[in-house]
TrEMBL record:
Organism: Fictibacillus aquaticus
Assigned protein family: Belongs to the ClpX chaperone family.
Positions of Zn(2+) binding: 11, 14, 34, 37
Protein's name according to its UniProt entry: ClpX-type ZB domain-containing protein
Source taxonomy: Bacteria, Bacillati, Bacillota, Bacilli, Bacillales
GO BP of this protein: protein folding
Top-level lineage group: Bacteria
InterPro entries: Znf_CLPX-like (IPR059188), Znf_CppX_C4 (IPR010603), Znf_CppX_C4_sf (IPR038366)
MF term (GO), any: protein dimerization activity
Chaperone as UniProt keyword: yes
Record keyword Kinase present: no
Length: 55
């Protein structure tokens, strides 16, 4: 009945496939994020942290 398992992992955030990026991280709920989106998220978090810290 055409049940196919996804062999290609795809980033849920930017839609890029694992072959288009360096790495795609798959979460427990099968949501995926690529290294590029992780970088953006990390940047966002660090900026947020900087704002709060104020140094
Ligand atoms: Zn991505």
């Amino acid at each position: 009945m055409g049940i196919t398992y996804e062999t290609k992992i795809q980033c849920d955030f930017c839609g890029k496939k694992d072959e288009e990026v360096k790495a795609v991280v798959v979460g427990i709920n099968k949501s995926c994020i690529c290294d590029q989106c992780v970088e953006v998220a990390a940047k966002f978090l660090s900026e947020d942290d900087k704002e709060k810290g104020g140094s």
